[in-house]
């Protein structure tokens, strides 16, 4: 490596951009306008680059830009067309103690580039300050690097006209079922997807992948980050990558590595076209797409990180610095840097990015990583932060789904339930409560210790009114504002929740220090997979039942359910609860399914379909416990095992582990729902409550390895007549029915240990699950 002469600002372009408000590169009739924000720069050069077939730069033409006007620099360049590679060089003071890190030897990516060519290659060339071979600063305070980053970093590419994207299906909130997955991991090994398409955008849109999603019944696919990303230096130095993608390089360009080889070889425009084609094909299949977006920080890491884009253009404008210490970042994200959303230009960058993906690319919604950061006015979170209100009211974004991860690691960073409508919040209390009740409490009871009482479980089943009944409008945000989930990309998979008591993250290379220790899991008596010939049949049976308990609870709870991709088939990560750096079989879905895994898929499909068919399973308003006009039942009732109403003592008793929830279906024009839960370690006799005096029809029991062929009692009665004799014949004919009295109010039935049942009432039973 050798130093390069410090470049001098180029002569200014003959013409200024016709519209300074349009940031990025915009094609015009005779060329292109370029606009970039760098308020504290003394000068900015536009660099037009020519590359060879291997992407190596063969020439660089520098053009001085006009400005700054309101912090923006701009130029019009005749003759530029789609496919032009470009970047910027920013000139200004080098004063690290004041947070000023201008170094024109660094070729910078346009923050608004819609497509990129190449990827940064980790090395000293990427750093604005001088570093040694280990990429540590060679001096304190920093000295400017004399190495040019051209040829070592990503280039922006001017994009041309786009084909129209098929509009999304706009699934109503109450019917939404989210499936969180990873573009690469989902199809990496999927049978039916051609090898050249596996792990790509095109692979996700292949009929084999779409068929699986459609057959499950999910409505909305939430993709882990697909913005172009660059992994952290400490990972790359250990020959790992940020597989999840939470290290954003560009807020506008799709990640090129998820495109097919053919698209990548055809060029950045083809990569963008493949992404847009995926969106269209999923929309045609009736599926929505939500992007997990990371606006809270960038891949430029801490003050000693690389200068790839925002830091080199204006470090003080985009990043949050300590008060009166501009050389020090405030890090509330745990990544080294935090985007400063007091900055008008930072807010504009996010809003412009969201409008682009929703308006031009057709994305149906966004899940905001560490969303509390987006609402911070420096250290304090404001639920009415201008950025959050702008998202909620923007005419382009108002028809999209907006989902907050409602926490970060800064002061006062836990804010579940505090985002403005129409945001939805990931409900981590729901996750903790369901895990605790079915798994951690059971583990504790197996050791002779009590679990938790039933109050929190009841609150989560009924929509988490303690967090979502408040807000700007009367009645609060409603139960659907709660994104109910038990597993997500970070943490154990559902299978690992029932197989491991402890995390097993050694493969990450961090001595098992990474990842949470708050798993609330239960290995059911043996850690990890059961050895061949161990005779662990009872353990395995109970593990599978516990998985079904979690799925059943998730899909009958008031709120918007989110399923972690692969949980429907018992996908394991070998106990790794932080697979962020595992681009390996640990993270890739294994589609070599055994019988029990196919049974679990069938169970997941059944439960999702039952929820879709019956509005009583997905209420849109909080219950009050009172009886509505025209009804004879309260909208929500709770009963003990003996059918007596729950009382204060029962709610506070940690040894009370049986509860019945009766939800009236009349407000939804549906049957009534009776959920019977046995969270104890032994069988329990349960007396079914009276309800309306009609029969209770058992739709599902978590002890069933697979949903039973459904000849519902009510449906058969419709076919053979509605009299008592007909209903009796129907009960006797139902697959699995052993005692018709189990369906009658006041009768006693026996629930197995750690199990739940879903009953629907007879008189209004409509919309049976499909066979």
UniProtKB/TrEMBL annotation:
<dbReference type="InterPro" id="IPR017853">
    <property type="entry name" value="GH"/>
</dbReference>
<feature type="domain" description="Glycosyl hydrolase family 13 catalytic">
    <location>
        <begin position="180"/>
        <end position="611"/>
    </location>
</feature>
<dbReference type="GO" id="GO:0005980">
    <property type="term" value="P:glycogen catabolic process"/>
</dbReference>
<dbReference type="InterPro" id="IPR011837">
    <property type="entry name" value="Glycogen_debranch_GlgX"/>
</dbReference>
<dbReference type="InterPro" id="IPR014756">
    <property type="entry name" value="Ig_E-set"/>
</dbReference>
<keyword id="KW-0378">Hydrolase</keyword>
<dbReference type="InterPro" id="IPR006047">
    <property type="entry name" value="GH13_cat_dom"/>
</dbReference>
<keyword id="KW-0326">Glycosidase</keyword>
<feature type="region of interest" description="Disordered">
    <location>
        <begin position="1"/>
        <end position="20"/>
    </location>
</feature>
<dbReference type="InterPro" id="IPR013783">
    <property type="entry name" value="Ig-like_fold"/>
</dbReference>
<dbReference type="InterPro" id="IPR044505">
    <property type="entry name" value="GlgX_Isoamylase_N_E_set"/>
</dbReference>
<protein>
    <submittedName>
        <fullName>Glycosyl hydrolase all-beta</fullName>
    </submittedName>
</protein>
<dbReference type="InterPro" id="IPR004193">
    <property type="entry name" value="Glyco_hydro_13_N"/>
</dbReference>
<feature type="compositionally biased region" description="Basic and acidic residues">
    <location>
        <begin position="510"/>
        <end position="521"/>
    </location>
</feature>
<dbReference type="InterPro" id="IPR013780">
    <property type="entry name" value="Glyco_hydro_b"/>
</dbReference>
<dbReference type="GO" id="GO:0004135">
    <property type="term" value="F:amylo-alpha-1,6-glucosidase activity"/>
</dbReference>
<dbReference type="Pfam" id="PF02922">
    <property type="entry name" value="CBM_48"/>
</dbReference>
<feature type="region of interest" description="Disordered">
    <location>
        <begin position="509"/>
        <end position="536"/>
    </location>
</feature>
<comment type="similarity">
    <text>Belongs to the glycosyl hydrolase 13 family.</text>
</comment>
